[in-house]
Structure formats: structure tokens, C-alpha cells
Amino acid sequence: MKQLIFSCMLILTMLACSYGQNTITFGHTTSSAAAQKIGMAINAVENLYVDELNSNKLAEDAIISMLEKLDPHSNYMTPEEVKEMNEPLQGNFDGIGIQFNMLTDTLYVVHVIPCGPSEKVGLLVGDRILQVDDTLIAGVKMKNTDVMSHIRGPKGTTVNLKVLRNGEPKLLNFKIVRDKIPIYSLGAFYMIDETTGYIKLNRFAATTYNEFKTALDTLVRQGMVNLILDLQDNGGGYLGTAIEIANEFLQQGSLIVYTEGVHQKREDARATNKGAMQNGRLVVIVNEASASASEIVTGAIQDWDRGVIVGRRTFGKGLVQRPVPLLDGSMIRLTTARYYTPTGRSIQKPYENGNQESYAKDLIDRGNRGEMISADSIHFSDSLKFSTLVNKRTVYGGGGIMPDYFVPLDTTFRSTLLGELNSNQITYKYTTRLIDSKRSAYKTQYPDFKTYNKDFAVTDQMLNELIESYRKDTTINKEDSLSEERIAKDLVKSASLLKAQIKALIARDIFGENEYYQVINKIIVPYNQAIEIISDDKVYNKLLSLPAK
Prior knowledge:
Helix 8 runs parallel beside helix 9 and helix 16 packs antiparallel against helix 17 (513-520). Mean pLDDT is 86; it is low at 1-30. By secondary structure, this protein is of the alpha+beta class.
């Protein structure tokens, strides 16, 4: 228990020292007095409480309870959670180099990472892994996290797999030496037409800028003049990465973002003169799941009138967290400052006393207010008005970035059937089986993506086979299955989207991620709206209040 008292005292001391001060004043009480109070309380519990206690658990509960009163983003993380959080941001992990999906209790390989350990030994997309070392993983309802714990391991260690491959009469044995596996931040990049490029970013990790710069330079060599940057569903990541990417679009000296807090002096980040996309038209696509670093990039581009923002109001996560590592490998992520856009807008949406429940329900509340469907349902007070720094357009603070061109949530293809197919992975299961039986034929018939994109069509017969897969799927409770009447009605509504999904999934398997997005983006409304805007000088200039050419 004395160790517990020391831990709590250490936490408060570290927080004080991290700001270069001996004490932090809160009203009439200093942190040293607060530490003494906590120590006295814990000492009383240690010496007087009726039952035996788990000191570590008590310390965790105390820390968690304290942080919950602050704000929605200050939190405590166990050593395991710290490791899990860092992997996608650090950009690599130790493993065998595959992406997989569990379908009907069977692990299907959906992607083999180029130059990784699995590719080197000949593992293929569509292979089914039945056993890892001595552990059977097929037909045992194992969770993805449990499967990963068997497959992943330290670099240099060996794992043995038993694999079922279509067309092979016997199980194949693979001995794979684990290695460092990169996690890519870039979803896709390609040329839409002769002068317009497209880049989709999934996160802002340690490796993101290098990936982004490589994609940008590649597209410029292919003739790109204008760019659509897709940040939809990008939840953010490292501040430094956001600054590097925003720097590619802004003139030297332009303020990108600044941070400030009661105990943190204002710190400015400004653009250098090395940006490769300081000219040319730029459209950024965002939605309600674009957060943090995504909002920093978007806010800077909007405030400097550098490009048009298309989509829906972003999430509104503008609090800066500083990691405070603890002795056992756990960590406190403590909010120390706020992000502000160049005009001085706070990105953070309102919150009340760290109320997690109401904060988490914010997106639901937005939907209930009609914000996802109509821009007219979004109201800003005059106190939240700001002017952009070049063209003096009106933009708004109050949390999140409001786009220049609003695109409502597309409900055109939505139906109960579509939800059932997606939530139960029926479309994915069907496509996996289809590719498994026709991969060789598809590769022969469509030797390149251009031919595939032009000539391949999902037929009504394939849709009927998909629906039959839904009817026969043993993982769905038949009492919950849709009626034939409802299936027929919903299929009419969702047919176009289902065909696009099937075609895109086949393209991903045969060609890759870029090709998947080239297919699926054709039915994504914000993407098509972005193309219309970036292709029309008159519309683009009007949205930015530029003089007509």
C-alpha cells in the first residue's frame, strides 16, 4: 500500500514537473496539498479498512475516477492498451504480414502484404488458415483478437500454419519467420483524369507523411495539377504529421495551427517553403468521423482559402493530450491544451465536466436534429463567426469544421436488407467464395484493371446468388430473417450499391486497394460532388469567393 501512496504522489509530481513548475495552483489549493490529502486518504484505507485490498486495482480506480471528471479525452491506459494504441500510430508491428477476416469460423487471407514474410513463402489471398502451431482456429468460434495473439509474435520467431487452398487436395504446411510489418496510412491514390489526382488518408501516423509525399510526387509525375484529398472517417493521429501534410499546401510563413492552455504557452506551427502543392485546385472531403489531425489540416486549408471543403461538419476533437508514462508501463493521457485554427477558431466541440455519455451521443444528437441531412438544421450564433484570412469569407467556430459545400448523408441505397448483408458479412462471404472458384478465370479474362473496370459487370444472377447465401447462412437466426416480400422490395433499392460492392471487392482481391476505391468511389456522393467542383472553374472560384475568370 505504501507503493500505492508513492504512485499517487509521483503522478502529481510528474504533472507539476512536466510544466516546469514546482506546484500548480488550483484555486486556493496546490498540488502538493492535494497529494498530501490523497496520501492521507489512502493511508487510512490501508490501515483501517475491514478487508484485504488489491493496491494496484485501487490505484487504477482512483486515477480513472479523477480523469473522468476532467474532459472526454483525458484517460488512463493499461500497459496492454498502451501497446495496442501505439501500433497503428508507430506504423508497424511484428507478425507474418497478412490481413484476414473470420468468416463462418474460418480465417480467410484477404491481403498478403508485399515483401512480407507470408508473401515470401507463397501464402495467397483466399487461403484458409485452419491451424496455427498446435492450435486449431477453424470451427471453434475464436475471436479476431485471440487469432491475432496466436499469429503475432516477436520478430525472428517462427510460426507454423496449416492452410486449405482451393484446388489442393491436401492441407499445405507453411513455416513463417515473423518480421516487422508496416501498417499503411494511405488508403489509395490514383489519377481521376489527366490533371486531377485523388489521395485517401486513413490516419495520421508516424509513417503517414512519407507515404503521402510519395503518392503526391507520383501523381505529379503523372500530370496532376489539381488534387482531391479524402479525409472521410480519418480519426486523426500525430500533430506533427498533420503539420507536415498541411505544409504541402500553404505558402511560406502561413500559420497552420496553434496550441494553448492555462499551463501551456501558445505554440505556433507555420508553413515552410517546401510544399509541392501550393498551387492548383484543392478539394478536401470530410465527414462527422473526421477528427483531430484531420481537422487541423482542414481548418488550415479553409482559413487560408487554399481549397474547398466538401462534406459534413467534422467531429470536433481539438484537445491536445500529453502522455504521462507510469512506472508499470501504464500511461495517463492528460489534456494540456486546445488546438486553434489560423483564424483563432477552437476545433473542440463543447463538453460538460467530462461527461462521457452526452459527449459520445453527440453524433446521434446531430442526426436527430437533422444535421446529417440538411445544412439548414445547423445554427451558429454570431459570436462564432470568423473571417478567412485571404478572401474574408465567413466561417464558424464552436467545434468541428463546417464545410464550404454541404453534402447530406446519402440514404439512396440504404435498406434493412443492406444492413443485414453488411452486419452479417454476407456480401463479403459470397464474394470470397466467388473469387475462390473463379480467380484464375478472372485473371485471364481481365489481365489489367482498365479492362476489368470497363468490361466486368455484376449480373442479376449474381445478386440472386447473394440473396440465396443470405437465406442459407447458418449464423443468422432464422426467426430474425427478413420476409421474402421485404427482401424483394429492399433489393430493388439497394441493387446498385450491392453490385458496386461486389465489383469493388473482386477488384481488391485481383488488383489491389487503389482499384477497390476506383470502383466503390463511383457511387460515393461526396466524391462525385468533389469531382464536379474541382472540374468547374466557375463553381470552384465562387465557393472560395475568388473573382470569376
